[in-house]
Design a protein that fits this description.
Elements lengths: L1 H25 L5 H4 L4 E3 L6 H18 L2 E7 L7 H11 L10 E7 L4 E7 L1 H5 L2 H16 L3 H19 L19 H23 L49 E3 L5 E8 L1
Parallel strand pairs: 1-2, 2-3
Antiparallel strand pairs: 3-4, 4-6, 5-6
Length: 275
Amino acid sequence: MKRSIVAILLAVICCSFAVVTVFADEVTEPTDSESAPERLVDGADLLTDSQEKALLKTLDEISKRQKCDVVIVTEENLQTNTAQDDADDFFDYNGYGYGKNRDGILLLISIGDRDWSISTRGFAIKAFTDKGQKYLVEQFKDDLSAGNYNEAFTIYAQQCDEFLTQAKTGKPYDGSNLPREPLSWVWIPISIVVGIIIALIIVSGMKRKLKSVAKQKAANSYVRNGSLNVTDSRDLFLYRTVNRREKPKSTSSDSGSSTHTSSSGATHGGSSGKF
């Protein structure tokens, strides 16, 4: 009887270990990228299903590669007093931010109020300076105003990727090193035509000035007889004039990143405006 009880207990213990082992194999510790909430929340329903799917894939890829959340949120109307508060609160209370410093940038669009706002936290505060954010918004604002929401959000995502890459070099985009706008091909023929016109004007002016000049057969025609009689020549150093000017100090156009405290007590960078 005792042997039967012992056998039963051993069987129960073995089964318990087997269950625990199987359970342990199925559970993995979540990573930052796996536990992050969706990086595209289209509450205002501005995008089609296919656009949402493609854009979310882009945001996830950039966020994981850069180790910094890149988020887009749309809503019908503001939930707080300002678009900036909405963006900060949505970031903080929905668990966005990569790593222990919660690195991330969030673009919030309130379609009913025609407001946009950017909220940055952690490394993104450094990566997206005040002037950098202004440049960033200028790249997609026209499409946003025209209702081309997918195009605007795609540009935003691409620009965020470039900004984060640049910031990792130690020189984030700011007033002194913002990306240069590509030169439109229209300016190439215009520049050629303008150059030809300027050259013709200069050559024509030079030609008019030379009308009084006549060709001479000998150099003697340019010298008055008896006017030149050189008996001795020497070089004499008389004086030297040195002018010194103070080199003007360069004034940096960099703005850096201004910060504020959100309702949760976290430090954020950001900006907001109308579209």
